[in-house]
Write a structure and sequence with these properties.
elongated; about 0% strand; mainly alpha; about 180 residues
Length: about 180
C-alpha cells in the first residue's frame, strides 16, 4: 500500500510542480505584462480596453488560487511553528503528530466542503450567465479555477493525512517529501 501511495503522490507532485506551478507562473507573468501594457496604453495613448482591469485582476487572482495547491503540497504554506517546536523540543513529538493529523483532517474536511458546495455556485453562475463588472468576461471560469485549486488541495491533504498517520504508527512514508519545513530566523 505504501508503494502505491508513494507512486501516486510522486505523480501528483510532479503534476503540481511542473504543470500547475508553471501555469500559475505564466498566468502571473501574463497578467503583469498585460497590466503594464494597459498602463502604457492609458498614459501614452489615452485608450484602454474596457475589460482590461477585470482581466488583470482575474488572471492574477486565478493564478494565485492555482498556486495554492503547489504550496500546500510542499507544506510551504504559512505556519506558526513556534508552539509545535517547543512541544517537540520538550519531548512531546507524538502530541505534535496528533495535532498535525487533526489539522490535516480539518483541512481535508474544509477543502472537500468548499468543493462540494462550490460546484453549485459555479453551476449557478454559469447558468445565469454572470459576467465581470466590464460585462465582457464570464465569472464562472475563475470560480471553477478556485474550485479546482481547492480540489487539488483536498487531494494533496489526503496524502498529508496518510503521511502523518503512518508516522504516528512509527513508519516513515514519502521520505522525499518533508512533513514539515522549518525556517531559521
Amino acid at each position: 500500500m505504501d508503494d502505491v501511495m508513494d507512486t501516486s503522490y510522486r505523480g501528483i507532485r510532479w503534476f503540481l510542480d511542473k504543470i500547475v506551478g508553471n501555469i500559475a507562473a505564466l498566468g502571473l507573468l501574463a497578467g503583469t505584462l498585460f497590466a503594464i501594457l494597459e498602463i502604457v496604453r492609458r498614459y501614452m495613448f489615452g485608450v484602454v480596453f474596457e475589460w482590461g482591469q477585470d482581466f488583470v485582476i482575474y488572471v492574477i487572482i486565478g493564478s494565485v488560487f492555482f498556486y495554492f495547491a503547489v504550496t500546500q503540497a510542499k507544506r510551504a504554506h504559512l505556519v506558526m511553528s513556534a508552539f509545535t517546536d517547543v512541544l517537540r523540543n520538550r519531548g512531546f513529538g507524538k502530541i505534535v503528530l496528533i495535532a498535525r493529523i487533526f489539522v490535516s483532517g480539518f483541512s481535508l474536511f474544509f477543502f472537500s466542503f468548499f468543493v462540494y458546495w462550490g460546484h453549485f455556485a459555479v453551476e449557478r453562475t454559469f447558468n445565469m450567465g454572470r459576467m465581470s463588472q466590464s460585462m465582457f468576461l464570464p465569472l464562472w471560469p475563475f470560480q471553477l479555477l478556485l474550485l479546482s485549486a481547492f480540489a487539488l488541495m483536498a487531494l494533496v491533504t489526503v496524502f498529508h493525512l496518510y503521511q502523518d498517520i503512518r508516522e504516528l504508527m512509527g513508519k516513515k512514508v514519502f521520505e522525499w517529501a518533508p512533513a514539515e519545513i522549518h525556517t531559521d530566523i
